[in-house]
Amino acid sequence: MSTESAVDRSRLAALADRERATFARRHPRSRAAYEAAGHLFGRVPMTWMNKTAGGFPVYVERARGARVTDLDGHEYVDFCLGDTGAMAGHSPAPVVDAVHRRLAGLGGASTMLPTEDAAAVGAELSRRFGLPYWSFALTATDANRWAIRLLRAVSGRPKILVNSYCYHGSVDESLIVVGPDGRGQSRDGNVGAPTDVTVTSRVAEFNDLAGLERELAHGDVAAVLMEPALTNIGIVLPEPGYLAGVRELTRKYGTYLINDETHTFSAGPGGATRAWDLAPDVLTIGKAIAGGIPIGAYGLSAELAGTLLGRTDLDLVDMGGVGGTLAGNPVSMAAARATLEHVLTDDAFAGMTATATSFAEGLRKIIDGYALPWSVSQLGCRVEYRFADPAPRNGTESAASADAELEDFLHVYLSNRGVLLTPFHNMVLMSPATTAADVARHHEVFAEALGELLSGS
Ligand code: PMP
User: Fold this and answer.
1) Which Gene3D superfamilies does UniProt cross-reference here (predicted)?
2) Which atom of ligand 1 is nearest the CA belonging to 83?
3) Which of 25, 144, 213, 215 is 20 to 30 A from residue 341's alpha carbon, by CA?
4) Residues near 379 by beta carbon (within 8 Å), at least 6 away in sequence
């Protein structure tokens, strides 16, 4: 059976309308706050916040652990967790204490001078990910941008290769997909590209070593920037041998390898890099490692760091295009140290992953109960379902399996019953504070949604 034949579209549309009306009735204060925000571009602090199945965003009043409470007083089990920024849970006590100590006790949010916390964070990131030298940014996007600049400089090559339907932040080079003719083309909707993306980038499908080799053979690729598993177009896991093949090919063609672990950090305390014994030249990360306080970071191999520091022609200290005034600030560093030492610990990951495993098992049971051709993928403490079975093998297949109407219905249905999912896809994340009861609550509501949709009960 296909999703198309299982789902009666007119029933779906009617239920979605009903749920949106319920959403509007349940959220008078959120709606009023949205309507009063006339001086915000798109009425929101950041335009992505308009991605909401209910028609306007839920406004946050409070957030603690795995719970969010909105302005209208509804409490949610939060499986979105700021799309990973709050994977440590909202406002974990050690992070709040460390930030308070820094800001209120010692003082200094923005000094452009180092604190001792930074060295401790660098050492801990080295222990976890295996790369010996670290530098900081405020977002994962900037960590990627600066890594790209550094690798262009050392390689003397112009292009960056990414996987089709990847996401690495608003990095211009990454907004390329494999087109229907098999060649790279700009991703739909790309805003203000500085130049035709095929001038700066090459692209290959995830899990396609032949395609990767074809592109690398041009000899003009400075670096492959990739997630060890795709996450932003749904979880797409690497097939056996694929990641080893990528490393072999990048070495063969003199191309550096950047692992972007911003989301795949869910795989374990050292991300997919440690879980799967990978050896990138550069590792980028952000979001979760400072417990919700802005941060980005990149780690460099010893060889690369040595080469870069030896290049007296590169201005790494002033106007060379790498760095930022607030990067490495005392608050980010205090928060990251507390998160890594006390919250997202090795033990915490074991618990979060066990919670995710039980989430995935329960979800599969419900989906199988309706014989739906959907797949469930797990990456450590992250779980996602796609409307395709078997699970998509690459970004293009995963993009093709999206069903915006169905997703919106499930999101608003869950939200009306106190369960929040990441608005961009059907992804759920487990924090150390997420409980078995939270998982059960999701499954109860999810089963109820499918019951109404598929059997009219
Ligand atoms: N890399 C990956 C893999 C991401 O998923 C994201 C954000 N979703 C980013 C980078 C960019 O992170 P930020 O928005 O914090 O810059």
Assistant:
1) Aspartate Aminotransferase, domain 1, Type I PLP-dependent aspartate aminotransferase-like (Major domain)
2) 8
3) 144
4) 229, 231, 235, 237, 264, 266, 267, 272
